[in-house]
Amino acid sequence: MGRLSSWAVVFFVILVFEGYFCERGLSATVTYDGKALVIDGKRRVLQSGSIHYPRSTPEVWPELIRKSKEGGLDVIETYVFWNYHEPVRGEYYFEGRFDLVRFVKTVQQAGLFVHLRIGPYACAEWNYGGFPLWLHFIPGIQFRTTNAPFKEEMKRFLAKIVDLMKEENLFASQGGPIILAQVENEYGNVEGAYGIGGALYVKWAAETAVSLNTTVPWVMCQQQEAPDPVINTCNGFYCDGFKPNSPSKPTMWTENYSGWFLSYGYAIPYRPVEDLAFAVARFFERGGTFQNYYMYFGGTNFGRTAGGPLIATSYDYDAPIDEYGFIRQPKWGHLRDLHLAIKQCEEYLVNADPVQQSLGRNLEAHVYYKTSNDCAAFLANYDSSSDANVTFNGNSYFLPAWSVSILPDCRNVIFNTAKVVSQRNLGDLALSHSISVSVRELSLASATWSWYKEKVGIWGNNSFTTSKLLEQINTTKDTSDFLWYTTSINVDDNAKQGQEKEALLLVQSLGHAALVFVNKKLVGFGYGNHDDPSFVLGEKISLNHGNNTLDIMSMMIGLQNYGPWFDIQGAGIYSVILGDLKKAKEDLSSAEWTYQVGLEGEYLGLDNPNLANSSLWTQGSATPINHSLIWYKTTFFVPEGKGPLSMNLASMGKGQAWVNGQSIGRYWPAYLSPSTGCSEKCDYRGTYDSFKCLKHCGEPAQTLYHIPRTWVHPGENLLVLHEELGGDPSKISFLTRSGQEICSHVSEADPPPADAWKPMSEFVSQTAEIRLSCEQGWRITSITFASFGTPTGDCGTFSPGRCHTSVLSIVQQACIDKQGCSIPVSTSQLGDPCPGELKSLAIEALCSG
Ligand SMILES: *[C@@H]1O[C@H](CO)[C@@H](O)[C@H](O)[C@H]1NC(C)=O
Ligand SMILES: *[C@@H]1O[C@H](CO)[C@@H](O)[C@H](O)[C@H]1NC(C)=O
Ligand SMILES: *[C@@H]1O[C@H](CO)[C@@H](O)[C@H](O)[C@H]1NC(C)=O
Ligand SMILES: *[C@@H]1O[C@H](CO)[C@@H](O)[C@H](O)[C@H]1NC(C)=O
Ligand SMILES: *[C@@H]1O[C@H](CO)[C@@H](O)[C@H](O)[C@H]1NC(C)=O
Ligand SMILES: *[C@@H]1O[C@H](CO)[C@@H](O)[C@H](O)[C@H]1NC(C)=O
Ligand SMILES: *[C@@H]1O[C@H](CO)[C@@H](O)[C@H](O)[C@H]1NC(C)=O
Ligand SMILES: CC(=O)N[C@H]1CO[C@H](CO)[C@@H](O)[C@@H]1O
């Protein structure tokens, strides 16, 4: 074919001297051309997924990566989190959840590639975008622009990570799994705010990265003018119109949002799999060859790792693998089917540019030819409401609105993005507020509690006084979420001694939340939200004649991680005004303020298991409830099982929790999301954005909090909570899965399962099939519904249709006591209750173990 165009000029970024690093594994050269990444001389179509290593524990990494591989991924992508790898300048940390080398090697053992996004700016809804806070205090520093101190530190960290990977032989040329690296991150979105310094910085970042001799290509995402040889890549919900800045670079999509992140005070966003599959299919249809799901597994923001402001502890992201490591169906299964369909077209996709053909209004085909009569095709209907029948290559095809069909032989449709045939699961442990039959629960109702009440105001001898309101981050250096601002108000007027005086107190804060106490009594709580963390708190207060105390507990909920100059965005109280109800205002902002960083309980280390029996703790029969600034402690036994646990904190207000000394993150169930914005069922058709599909309106963003199984042990475990607003700890419970409810609904007309696709000649003779499988070694213990004919309803609500034959015994025979089973959807196996009609099979089953 004479279709080879500009991309045919192969652009070798780096020459690799093979044999040099040959002691380990097989070394591979990674280069690229205008069509694709080229690995050992072969152009590749690659599916990638983001998994951030510190958002789960090392014990579950192999399982997460195995599930990613089974889901059809070729590449695992992660950021590198500078602030945890270098908590103090020059002191490095690569242990536990931060063992980057172990993570990369775990991916390697599974036989997958790694895309290492070193950054060092990560964003990622991670505290301070991944920058260490000490960076902020280097004299003269300006982040992410052409500033000498910043460039020096950034280069040092980039080199540190590259050297670490080289020492461990982890680059592809050394026999390792790393095939791609990233420098900076989404800088194009903010570059304008940095003026000429921004452009110079981009050039410097690219040169610096390339000079590090990684032997793999570098990418910059959202960076239109990424200098050669760095590849500019696309991030977004859709990237099918994206073209790189040079015909010698491949079309790559580094962040395809599988859902969206969660913030306290917001409803839970989700992205229907039909739309996600549509976006991916369109990207490959129009010439893309590398795509990454952000996230494929989101996980948990343990400790104080969440970014901000107000990013929730759950980083579930509606990803194909849920926060707890369970496969999210049908998302995972439908995408797996899509990846197999695209893989089936790989030889065509890397061989030629697609030829576009209009099939009508909002209807088009893209055909990839190997020879004039050997081709693969994608047929798209990108209309957001009208289904269509199209004629292509002499055949007629039905195309639902907002869908793409994949035809690896230009003839047979093996996949349509809107037609989900994969297994579905009921009862999402990560997000469901209702307890399903397959969840085991253990309540703390009869637990014995101890507590420790924080003093209101200054508690230690390291407080300091100054006559102005201080910015919080500069003051705490993020060693704590908390800063006490205290002052006194002297009422010296004609009022009689002992008489109270009414006043109006106006507190203004840059964020993120604050408790206000007058004369040690709580008078108000103010807070912002993710999009605007600032707030104003106006309270009517009563003051005594003489001296009154004003104590403000200002709280941070994750440092900003995004936006131009986000690193100097401040927090804390900036104005306090006392309004006399009759007379003039008094500005207390420049009064004498005494400050104390952190809580006394933090200073004492109450979260530390070594203090579990300390006399600091008060024990008694009446546990204080609905009390602000209080620490609670108890011991608990975990529900039996091997899987992950969650803790239901719906009865608590806002705070942080520790299990056996490990912080499971900040909680804030008292913050309800707006009651509107959710719809019963979200239509996947039409352009998606992060506000389109929301659930749990009017409810807390998060009530269930993840506890990794490796953080607990048989026998007594220690739970410590610091409650800031007021809650009832006796209503806390622990949950774990004891099984799964699974189901599937497949029609005779549906394509056969993905792994039956090869070769196409065999595919044509295959029939549709239902496949069911359990996770975690569970087995199918009962079939709760099975009907062949015209069953109606959805998973959980199936009922037999007008045409029905019970196939219960056939299904039981095939499935009971098995971890997985398959049933062909055909009359020859199941009988024919209504000849001539299109029939389907619906099954619901229970896994347990
Ligand atoms: C990269 O390799 C080149 C050529 O081998 C060498 O001159 C240069 O010093 C290397 N740079 C680094 C940072 O290792
Ligand atoms: C497509 O064709 C089928 C079969 O001929 C027909 O039943 C259906 O109504 C058509 N749909 C559209 C949107 O034209
Ligand atoms: C107060 O000071 C003493 C020594 O001067 C020190 O040991 C102690 O830890 C300090 N306490 C607090 C709460 O800062
Ligand atoms: C008010 O009380 C505080 C705390 O007891 C004290 O530090 C301050 O000096 C007093 N102010 C006045 C004006 O008496
Ligand atoms: C923190 O302090 C630095 C250096 O003193 C200053 O440049 C910066 O503006 C301060 N940050 C905020 C948010 O006030
Ligand atoms: C606290 O007391 C319990 C029960 O007496 C004991 O099992 C545990 O080891 C003690 N913990 C510490 C840290 O001393
Ligand atoms: C908790 O205390 C607040 C303020 O004192 C009060 O408004 C609220 O009703 C109390 N809630 C419960 C459940 O007791
Ligand atoms: C390229 C692209 O679509 N980027 C978008 C990614 O998502 C964020 C958040 O919704 C948008 O602001 C970007 O424009």
Automatic annotation (TrEMBL):
Catalytic activity: Hydrolysis of terminal non-reducing beta-D-galactose residues in beta-D-galactosides
GO terms under biological process: carbohydrate metabolic process
A GO molecular-function descriptor: beta-galactosidase activity
Residues of the SUEL-type lectin domain: 764-848
Enzyme Commission code: 3.2.1.23
Listed InterPro entries: BetaGal_gal-bd, Galactose-bd-like_sf, GH, GHD, Gly_Hdrlase_35_cat, Glyco_hydro_35_CS, Glycoside_Hdrlase_35, Lectin_gal-bd_dom
Enzyme class: hydrolase
CDD domains, alphabetized: Gal_Rha_Lectin_BGal
One Pfam short name: Glyco_hydro_35
Signal peptide: 1-22
UniProt similarity note: Belongs to the glycosyl hydrolase 35 family.
The name this protein goes by in its record: Beta-galactosidase
Species, as recorded: Actinidia deliciosa
